[in-house]
Amino acid sequence: MTTTLKKGIELLLTQIMHISLNKYFHFTLLVFSLLLTDINNLKSEEHIISIDNIQVNGEIADTYFADEIVISNTDSILFEYSVNPVLDKEPVLYRVMLVMGNDTSINVINGMEVRYANLPQANYKFIISAFDSSGEWSTKEESLEFRVDNNLHSVLVKSNNLELQIAELKKKLKELESENGVISIISDIALIIFLTIILLFAIIFFKNRPKKKSIDTKQREVKVGSSNQNNLSVENAELKEEIASLRLQIDKMQEQSRNLVLQNKELQENLNKTDKSKQELEELQKQKEELFSVIVHDIKNPASVIKGLVDLLTNYDSTASDFEDIMKDIAASSSRILMLSSEISKIMALEGTGLKLHYDKVDINDIAQDVFTRNSYNAKNKKLTYECMFDNNLPEITLDVLRIDEVMDNLISNAIKYTERNGSVLVETSFDKDKNHIVFSVSDTGQGLSEEDIKSTFQKGATLSSKPTAGESATGLGLWIVKKMIEAHDGYVWVKSKKGEGSTFAFSIPVNRKVKNEKVEKLENA
User: Is the pLDDT of residue 468 over 60?
Assistant: First the structure.
């Protein structure tokens, strides 16, 4: 009953004897209006759902789990819940949800408990809410998280059993301490009684025997009493030693319990790391198998072409013109096989024992100019605007000329390969003063890359949405090799691109990098 209603009734009882019938009638109406107001307030009171009880295999979970609820996949877990305030005449429905990762199960029931059993190992979230069948009210959601983990559950069970053993030992320790106290009291009482008896005997002997003999008897009896006291003291000392031993055992068991928890935690972390490493290795192996299957397929095609052309030369008479065309096709197919073989050797070197870079101090513009000139023929065939802008004030830099030549050739040939006829390609060198890096870049007006392409551009065997514009070959390995070679020079590579608007590929290498003769990078005979 609310405070307002109580005050109204008290006021009514106070005034009954002092007011007229008319006033009593009006006053009663006032009290009933207060009562109706209180009832309306009760009806409008917010409904709240609460999780009242959690049981694991029929046992209360609160007495078993300290920080979180962890069960095994063979356990059952029961949730009991209720709505407050309780309205007996109004049917209540419950919306029960169980969330496991991205999976959610939802059920609507009218029972006040739900049980789950044999759940897979995972993290779960139990969510409960209630509403009436007429839709006039609903509660906010109440949730609770728990975990199904066989390993962790086993550790918790062992830890709990250990704690029970420790509690039992502590109980025995208290009993021994209590017993020790009783023995000590009995020992004191016995000593007093014994001394009293000795005193009585001494008096009797003193009266009935010669003085010397009485004194001797008294001394003997005192010695007997002292002996008994010594025996009690020994027993008391033994009990104290036993208690100390039990305390030591309890301390050791507690230390073992702490070590067990730490070891299990460390074991779980190692298992997680092992699982992650295993998944990464499996993914790398899968990528490698897919990549080599693509390369083998790509080698098989030109090899088949060469065989067919050789058969044609062997079995049929051909004109000089036919012979020239066949030889061109054989040369092209052979070049294709040579290129793929080179790619394979690079991959094996990058993933194998590694390669030693051969360093020289050079002007990087000399390398860039050679590669630019080498690719001018292909650019001319596609009628591209093919230009270069080299910074003539670049400092000399120490690098592996052959590897950097290969990187530049890969980037320039890619730009030509993926640019439509009549497009443009610009090759540049520059100096980044802030980082003390030399920068090489190739920009084109080609097809460009999507955001998804950019994420995987430098991955091994990446398949991008852009395709060569004149039927040129592509393995998806070149940019991955570029990245590895630049990283071997302590540099980094990047791309800026927009789909349909072209791309800029670039790399930078530090000028003052320290070169060690014994330094070995993963590149050799590529």
Answer: no
DSSP-derived 3-state class of residue 391? coil
Q: What are phi and psi of 443, to 5 degrees?
A: -115, 145
CA 301 to chain centre: 45
Q: Which residues of 460-489 are buried (b: 16+ CB within 10 A; e: fewer)?
A: bbbebebeebeeeeebbbbbbbbbbbbebb
Whole-number pLDDT of residue 44 = 44
Q: What is the mean pLDDT of residues 58-79?
A: 80
Alpha-carbon gap, residue 117 to 73, rounded angstroms: 8
State both tokens at 196. Answer: 């009293």
The two three-digit tokens of residue 291, written as one number: 């990549």
User: Measured between alpha carbons, how far is 369 from 364 in angstroms, rounded to an integer?
Assistant: 9
The DSSP letter of residue 74 is T
Q: What is the dihedral of CA 181, 185, 190, 195, to 10 degrees?
A: 130
Are 97 and 105 spatial neighbours (Cβ–Cβ below 8 Å)? yes
* 73, 150 contact by CB (below 8 A): yes
The DSSP-derived string for 293-326 is HHHHHHHHHHHHHHHHHHHHHHHS---HHHHHHH
Rg (CA), the chain: 46
Over 50: is that where the pLDDT of 214 sits?
no
What's the pLDDT tens digit per position in 166-185?
777 777 777 766 666 655 66
Angle at 164 between CA 158 and CA 165, to 5 degrees: 90
Quickly count: other Cβ atoms within 10 Å of residue 348's Cβ: 13
Instruction: Name residue, tokens 């025996």.
Output: 231
β-sheet with 48-56: strand ranges across:
59-60, 48-56, 76-84, 113-117
Residue-level pLDDT at 345: 61
* Helix, strand, coil percentages for the chain (3-state, nearest 5): 55, 20, 25
| % pLDDT > 90, the chain | 26
User: ∠ at Cα 307 (301, 312), nearest 5°?
Assistant: 125
232: its two tokens = 């009690």
pLDDT tens digit sequence for 385-416:
999 999 999 999 999 998 899 899 889 988 99
Q: What is the DSSP string of 242-299?
A: HHHHHHHHHHHHHHHHHHHHHHHHHHHHHHHHHHHHHHHHHHHHHHHHHHHHHHHHHH
- Residue matched to tokens 């003390």: 436
Residue 135 sits at the vertex; the CA angle it makes with 130 and 141, to the nearest 5 degrees, is 25
Q: Of 64, 252, 240, 239, nearest to 166 (Cα)?
A: 252
Is residue 12 very low, low, confident or very high in pLDDT (cuts 50, 70, 90)? Answer: low
Q: Is pLDDT at 135 greater than 60 in this prediction? A: yes
Q: SS3 sequence, 438-489? A: EEEEEEECCCCCCHHHHHHCCCCCCCCCCCCCCCCCCCCCHHHHHHHHHHHC
Which residues is 129 bridged to in the sheet? 95
What is the C-alpha to C-alpha distance for residues 414 and 482, in angstroms, rounded to an integer? Answer: 12
